[in-house]
Amino acid sequence: MTKVIGVVSAKGGVGKTTTVANLGVIAAAEFGRKVLAVDANISAPNLGMYLGIINPPVTLHDVLQEKFSIRRSIYTHSTGLHVLPASFSEGPTDQKELRRKIESVFHDYDIIFLDSPPGMSDEVIAAMKASDEIILITNPESPIVTTTLKNIKLAGEMKVSVAGIVLNRMCEREYEMSPSEVGDCLGVPVIATIPEDPRIPEAVSRAMPVAQCFPDSGSSEEFRALAAYLLGEEHVPGFFVRIKKLFDSVKNFFR
Ligand SMILES: Nc1ncnc2c1ncn2[C@@H]1O[C@H](COP(=O)(O)OP(=O)(O)OP(=O)(O)O)[C@@H](O)[C@H]1O
Ligand SMILES: [Mg+2]
């Protein structure tokens, strides 16, 4: 059965689009799933840019305005991931139609990832309503983590299940909240910790997800582990990660 996973956050710029682009290419290219990534960030879309799809002629806006069929607005990325981008075009869109539109292509996909705007606006509510479950992205800073509680409450009221928290941009500094502190504060498990990784903005500048551009980077490995978790697959750490873990354990032994 097709599952729709919404990627949501309390604050902007925490890494939702980065997460959707990377989960999408990993699930498609490495786990062989039929995957659609949808840009449900209607007012400030940029998922297409993260995947090298610049100025697509037909977008989700056209679909929600009933100008084109959903299939006309789906593009195939070089990794095999299918992408439904949005655009900056003007005009009203009926976001409540989002679920119905994507349901019409359910039989083409195993999994659909929805990128959303930050906060709790009507657009976020539409994205959450269109999702079977959500993952919440946060950074390890207490103002962002505590605001995330509001999204968890909203999800509870909407009866949308929360699959877990993704803690992005971890620098392993003592002032950061640890994964267990974040999990305890939110009452939801942390299912991935993604390190701060300069390879991510570097990959963005090349209009590619880091997992495609730098597959051996630390962040790519953590996105791979997250994708495996969400897909119910076993994750076998890559060679470089195994070496790093060995190095870290030797370092900790002599500390
Ligand atoms: N782990 C990371 N390490 C370094 N830079 C990162 C990391 N994750 C995201 N970034 C950078 O942070 C910026 C914001 O990321 P992104 O666009 O994914 O956030 P967002 O939550 O989708 O933002 P918005 O709420 O505006 O849609 C980007 O420039 C991205 O390259
Ligand atoms: Mg975004």
Main sheet: which strands, in order across?
Answer: 3-4-2-5-1-6-7-8
Helix proportion = 40-55%
- Principal-axis shape: globular
Report how far the terminal alpha carbons are from each other. Answer: 49 Å
What's the count of strands? 8
Uncertain stretches of 5 or more adjacent residues:
none
Structure classification: alpha/beta
CATH architecture type: 3-Layer(aba) Sandwich
Distinct small molecules bound, one entry per kind: adenosine-5'-triphosphate, magnesium ion
Task: Tell me the number of helical segments per DSSP (H or I, 4 or more residues long).
Answer: 11
Which H/E pattern describes the elements?
Answer: EHEHHEEHEHEHEHEHHHH
**Cα radius of gyration in angstroms:** 18 Å
Number of domain units: 1
- Strand fraction equals 15-25%
Instruction: Write out the CATH superfamily name.
Output: P-loop containing nucleotide triphosphate hydrolases
CATH topology: Rossmann fold
Largest sheet: 8 strands, mixed
The first-level CATH class is given as Alpha Beta
